[in-house]
Amino acid sequence: MQGVKFLTVSDLLHYGHSHTGSSTPGPPLISDQTPQPPPAPSTSNPNRELEPLPQLDYPAILVGTLRLPTLTLKCTLWKCLQFSDDSVTVCCDIVGFDPRAIGKKINVLTWNFIISDHLSGGFLEIVKWDLSDSSHGLSRCSSLVVDSFPLVSNLIECVPKTSNAKSYRIHGIIEAVSPVSIIPCSVEESSSNQSINLRGFQVRIMTCECKLCRYEESVRVLFEATDSHSFTAPVFVYFCGPAWCWHPVLTKLIGNVVTISGLKKKLILMGKQEPFLMLVTADNTILHLPRLLKKRKVVCGSHEGTVKNVYMQGMVVELDEEVWLLLTNQSLMPSHGLRIGAVISIRNAHFVVPQFSWAKFIILGACVNTSIIVKSFSPLKTRCLIVSQSQSQLGNFIEALGFSTRLWVLLLVSCFQKTFSGILSRKELLGSSHNEGLVQMFARSHLHSSVFRARHGVLMEFIKHESCCTATEPYPGNLKLVVPISSFIHHCEIFGIKALLPSDNILPVSCVGNYYQRSKRKVFRSEDLGIILVGLLKISPSSGRLQLVDMTDSIDVVIPDLPSFWDHNSIFEVIDYFLIVEGMHESDLPELSSDDSSLPRSIFQPQGFPSARKSNLKIFVYFHLRNATCRNRPIYPPIASEDELNDTKSGKFHLIYITRRVRPTCHSMKLERSVFAEAIVMPWYLFLAGKDGSTHQDKVLIDCTVGNHADHSSSKRQKIDCASTLSGTCFKDNFCRCGDQSCLRTSFSHEIPCSATIQGVNNFIFTSSGTLYRIKADAKIKVCKGRAKKFFLAFISECDLKYQLLQIGGVYLMKHHKEGPLCNIKNVSLKVVTVPITPGTYLRRLSFSSEDLTTDKSLHNSLCNEVFTKDQVLAVASGSSISDIHLHVSSSLTGLFESDIKELRNGQNVSDANLGRFSLSLGMNTRMNANLEDNSGLLGHSHIFPARKFTSLCGDIIAVHSFDQGSSDMCSSRADYGDHGQYGFCDRTKNFCIHVSVANQTVKIFGFVNQYLFPTGFGPGINATFHQILDLRPGVPSTLMLTSESSIVINSIRAVDETHISDGNLKRFRCRVVAVYVLVLEKSNRNCVDLNSNMQSRPLSVDIPLACFILDDGSCSWCCWANAERAATLLRLKEYQLSGCEASGYKRRLVGVQNTTRASTMHHLERILEKHDRITVKSCRSVFDPFDQDFTVTAGSGRALIGLDDDFDLVASVIFNACINTSWTVVTEVMDSNAVNLLKEHLDDMQMPMPCMENLWAREVLSVNHATEAREMLQNNL
Amino acid sequence: MAAQAQQPSLLNIHLKLLGFTLRSITPFPNCPSVFNLNGKQISRVEVLGVVTSRDHKPGRFLRFTIDDGTGSITCVLWLNHLTSSFFATRQPATLRVISDLSKSFADDLRLGKVARVRGRVSIFRGDLQVTVSDVVIETDPNAETLHRLDCISLARRCYFG
């Protein structure tokens, strides 16, 4: 022991740092267990690097006394073993525990000391130790030596006297130890009754009832006769009074055979249960233990694992191998040593395999029977586990649940704490001891009452273990996970990227002679994800897009039924939604690792997981607001924007028709300047009385909201409004004060009573009666002082949402104000009239129906009728079905109204387009821009657009690609379409091309525009209307251009996966290649460095963006399209021997080529592609006879390769070689019409017809195993 | 009476036929390149069998017979692509490659080899023969079994179904 320093507890506390110390130099011994590697930081917590405990730089021994717990030490658990020197005592835990060390001075040879303010200085983890007094050394251990430990050596508490009752002895295996609990009881003293709190715990011991045990044999005899015992009878022993301090000892002895003598029998009464006979410790109770402890039994329900992380103040412990330990039981307080990196042993826990769709793991549920022992202390510098006992409604609520539901609620708590920190207070979220918080209300609304079980207290639950068992736990599979948006995005990225890869099996898009990679879309349904979204609806200040927002992140949303106004403070819960992920295969796609429980982990992690958001992965969510539930109403009463409502509910309104939207050029991410919309004032007025208006809450809302949601405020408002509204007569009075009814009659051509259903805030519905007036063109009377027929609405930046929600072709209501900008235009002779739209100006979308109004639910019903159809087309802008105010009028009016709109449109020179040989009139309207030129002086860019046509177009988007990511640069394309610089596009713009299928023809729309012009959800697979697109070359189709004035309205989104291939309709057949119809070979960007590597596994050094093979299986022939690896396989480029090449003599003409292997074939292909960049081979003869094929081979430059070229020979050889094969097993998908259109477009570019065969897309190409195939055929009876 | 679903044409398909089936087909009157198989028009076949005879005229043709155990079929592989006026409409460069390939086929078609032959059916001097399009020498004996099973299965499902 020379050079070894002797330390005391005081020295450790003075040192002041968590550390590890050892008597021997070198790395510290962790424990008697096999040292566990620390958990990998990358999987446990990416945000934290876990460091090992620093080691004392000198050898040292800690000397002190090991003691049983006392109530005097500052410790939240009150049940820790203690280690003390003469002056200071600290909590401790010990591995290799021996009861004989209690009360003795021990030398701690290796230890960890963790500083903690919550404890009396710190926590000592004793890793290696021995007894100071060598005479008591443990080396003389023998199974025959039995030590006896009186449990009551020093009376700490007053104990009920047990008089002279008979004492009992039991011999058995300790099976379970309950937590220490306190029972208030009264003790009858001779003088008076005294009330005390009786501290104690129960132990379940499986005893033996053999002869030896029944008779008073000596304890030694009992231990010696190990084979004669059968431990089958459970006995409960209550360790009460001073014996409670033996709790840590008994816990560590679980699974060991012990003898306890000096016990008393007591009849226990618990509630209304039958009296229960229990053994109770007394003054003379003695615990007998053999010196060599030998575990006899593996306790059922035990598990050993390494702690990966501790969450929520120790209520959730993540162990290795996807095991999650739940320690919500407040009476169960695990050791402070349960730190990250520790190996723990859990006994008597409930093993639950939850059926959650969002994660796969095992839950270990701890109950009063459960004991947790640290088997190996953590070598990491992590904090002690400090569990504080606090009674709360939420805690009791959680305890009443089954384990998997319990974990769900804990995740909910963690999620809400993250999501609404700063928005809601802790008390509002978690509640208090008396009130429910948002979490509890939310959870309760999702849980059936049957999942709650009655609690029975520690004593009862320990004795009647089945009462705390989760065997009866209802199936919680329908519980969806509520996640913060940051976790959701992280999850979507992993989910989406996995789904998008491998994406080389996507048909490229050809455009102006080049091939471009297409993005791929995947659509996920919320029920498949098992995730609920919760957040506020906001407009992103940066992108101007509608987003679902919480404190962690935000996600773009598409809400088809978004009203013009909603409560921005409302917390919406979205259960039914679609997640759409769109991405493009790029080599730098983030590599995100995930396992089955990464989602719950990300929720529990304080910082969550960092999002690897990439610009090439677009994520958005589609849902209906009517399906969303407002969740914070009990906390915050609905702040119905009163001004907005009052403005809408009654009064006179102009009807305006939106003709176009104008956005100035160089629109940056933030809307910095005004945007405009052109509108026409219709000869109609709506008068809403608001008189018989009544307030209704949406049924959905009533069903889903919790608490008292009676909206007294709105009723009150209604009353005020009713009193102040104008009557119909008053309205007419405003027109003409002469009182002559004939004057009115001559002014109005129609006066139609109607009923209005008004969408209020957060799904509130109001109704009001009203009248529609149609004013004659030659009316004498005037409603407004000065009014223009056509004007521009100027939206300032604060009103960007109003602008975005504005739909071209929509009819809107604008309130009539005598002095308002619309009604008081001083100089109506001006060519350009602007009406500013400020935050106080309200535009309401109007819709009509000719149904008789029977109920006031009609507006909502009209919305609800939009259910997702089977073909999964998600409607986005669905005409009149989405509106703020819905008018129910007689059927005669609707026709009149439509004819008025038609007239207005004609007045705007709207006419069908005639675009050359293509008949596109179906979805396309063209308007001369003469009117624009008249008006654009206001916008300051009349010079921008030459005298061209503006067009609107509606169609299905096949593909969207940027010219920047194509296979060649945009120079040639740019040249084709002129210098767009003259149109004033700024540098931030990007070159896009949108392929739109219109009336079975593909139209290309080019755009040099900021991508923020594209609305959320824009991409392939949608149906959209393009307004104000410039027709660059009238008469020539496919030369349309998006400008800054253009606007795009998404009509619908296809919910099926946008892979341009049908919905998984796979065909598998054995066939041979008959001919190659089209083949495109391109120079690869990948460099193949090792020519000697395995041919099959080596990446192709030649790109094959597209190939079309004619396949034949003896019964039918198909047009099989393939690319990349599959095309290479069918071309036999992956085989060693190229017989065609050899046979053609190509080899012979190449000097220096020794053998024609695949490598050299590829080498030759590489070489010729180096020269030509791209080779396109087109069949120009038969496609039904392998050797009846002739080809046109074109180089990238457009030059045709002729027969004299060696290069031609090689290409021809490659193709013939593909036909000289045996058979392939090809797995294909039938291509949908979109994909066929795309291919048709490719072939049109090549001036080739589409073969009259079924088009298939190759998913997989496999070589045929003749023997296997033959066997299968025989087994399947041919 | 329900309309009978229209059967896809087999005219441009390479039918997998056993020797005895192939020998049973007859040409349509006035159309010697189209044959009748159970009322269906066919013109191309794929046969597989052992090469049992060969008659090689270098630069002109290779006539050979293959026997699949059910019948022997005469095949002719033309080797005069570069000289015959029959191929005048073809691209010279492609013909050069085809000619080289055909020569290599002729070299490969040795007696006793198992050959898979695709080609057009024709009548020569009253006898049925296959004008070879391409040849694959099969080395896996299981290929023969699988071909026979294919022939039976296709005949049941498609040709005679």
Describe this structure in a few short sentences.
Chain A is α+β, with helices and mostly antiparallel strands and 1278 residues long.
Report the C-alpha radius of gyration of chain B, rounded.
Answer: 17 Å
- What percent of residues of chain A adopt helix (DSSP H or I)? 10-25%
Mean pLDDT of chain A: 72
Number of distinct beta strands of chain A? 60
Binned, the helix content of chain B reads: 25-40%
InterPro entries (chain B): NA-bd_OB-fold, NA-bd_OB_tRNA, RFA2-like
Main location (chain B): nucleus
Protein name (chain B): CST complex subunit STN1
Keywords (chain B): Chromosome, DNA-binding, Nucleus, Telomere
How is the secondary structure organized here?
The complex is a heterodimer of chains A (1278) and B (161).
Chain A: E1 5-7, H1 9-15, E2 19-22, H2 41-44, E3 60-67, E4 81-84, E5 89-94, E6 105-116, E7 121-131, E8 146-150, E9 168-177, E10 181-188, E11 193-208, H3 211-214, H4 219-224, E12 231-240, H5 247-252, E13 257-268, E14 276-280, E15 286-290, E16 303-311, E17 316-319, E18 323-326, E19 343-347, E20 350-352, E21 362-365, E22 371-376, H6 393-399, H7 403-419, H8 426-430, H9 438-446, H10 457-463, E23 481-483, H11 485-500, E24 509-511, E25 514-516, E26 520-525, H12 526-529, E27 531-539, E28 546-549, E29 554-558, E30 572-574, E31 578-583, H13 598-604, E32 617-622, E33 629-630, H14 642-649, E34 651-662, E35 675-688, E36 694-696, H15 699-704, H16 712-724, H17 728-735, H18 741-747, E37 748-759, E38 765-775, E39 790-795, H19 800-805, E40 811-815, E41 834-837, E42 843-849, H20 858-864, E43 873-875, E44 885-888, H21 891-907, E45 910-912, E46 924-928, H22 930-935, E47 949-962, H23 971-976, E48 990-998, E49 1001-1009, E50 1022-1031, E51 1040-1042, E52 1047-1054, E53 1066-1083, E54 1102-1112, E55 1117-1122, H24 1124-1130, H25 1139-1144, ...
Parallel strand pairs in A: 1-3, 5-7, 12-14, 18-21, 23-27, 29-32, 39-41, 42-44, 49-51, 55-60
Antiparallel strand pairs in A: 2-6, 3-4, 3-6, 4-5, 6-7, 8-15, 9-11, 9-13, 10-11, 11-12, 13-14, 13-15, 16-17, 16-19, 17-18, 19-22, 20-21, 24-25, 26-31, 27-28, 27-30, 28-29, 30-33, 31-32, 34-35, 34-40, 35-38, 35-39, 36-38, 37-38, 37-44, 40-42, 43-52, 45-46, 46-47, 47-48, 47-50, 48-49, 50-51, 50-52, ...
Chain B: E1 14-16, H1 19-24, E2 26-28, E3 31-37, E4 40-42, E5 44-57, E6 61-67, E7 72-78, H2 92-108, E8 114-124, E9 127-138, H3 141-159
Parallel strand pairs in B: 1-5, 7-9
Antiparallel strand pairs in B: 2-3, 3-4, 5-6, 5-8, 6-7, 8-9
